[in-house]
Amino acid sequence: MALDERTRHALHTKLLEVLGTASAEVLMEELARMPDDVARAGDIAAVRGDLETLRGDLETLRGDTNRGLDTLRGDLTSGLGALRGEMNNEVGALRSGMDHGFQVLRTEMEAMEHRLTAVFRGELVAAVTSQTRTIVFALLASQVTLAGLIVAASRILRSG
Questions:
Q1: Average pLDDT, rounded, for the chain
Q2: How many other CB atoms sit within 10 Å of the CB of residue 60?
């Protein structure tokens, strides 16, 4: 209960009569220092009750938060597992595609090698055939020339 000035003055007068001047002054001075909102036992009990309610609410909130975090952790774990599976599938598909592409490339390169080898062999055979023909004709011409020289030499030797 708040003290107004009139009540304080009446109390001071009564204290002067009962306690005397010195004691009344000390008591009034102490009363002046006390704030108007002094807590009483009932107020403290109410605050304790409020604190207990808040503590319960905080524990409930903490439990809800932990459950939410556990749910989130589970969702993240399963999501990451699904993502890992998808990535493994995609990487596997990429590897398979690359393996197929490399196999096609190898096949094309082998076919090109065979074509180039065939062309080279054909050109080599043509060159060797041409050279062989030239050598055969040259040898034939030299044999004919040699035969002609022998015939001419034998005629010269018979005539002479």
A1: 90
A2: 10
| Structural contact between residues 41 and 7, judged by C-beta atoms closer than 8 angstroms | no
**In angstroms, rounded to a whole number, what is the distance separating the alpha carbons of residues 20 and 13?**
10
In terms of phi and psi (left: phi > 0; alpha: psi -120 to 50; beta: otherwise), the region of 20 is left
Long-range contacts of 35-41 (CB under 8 A, 24+ apart): 36/2, 36/3
**Helix intervals (H) in the chain:** 5-19, 21-33, 41-159
Note the pLDDT tens digit of each residue in 40-85: 777 788 889 999 999 999 999 999 999 999 999 999 999 999 999 9
What is the SS3 string spanning 73-102? Answer: HHHHHHHHHHHHHHHHHHHHHHHHHHHHHH
pTM of the model: 0.42
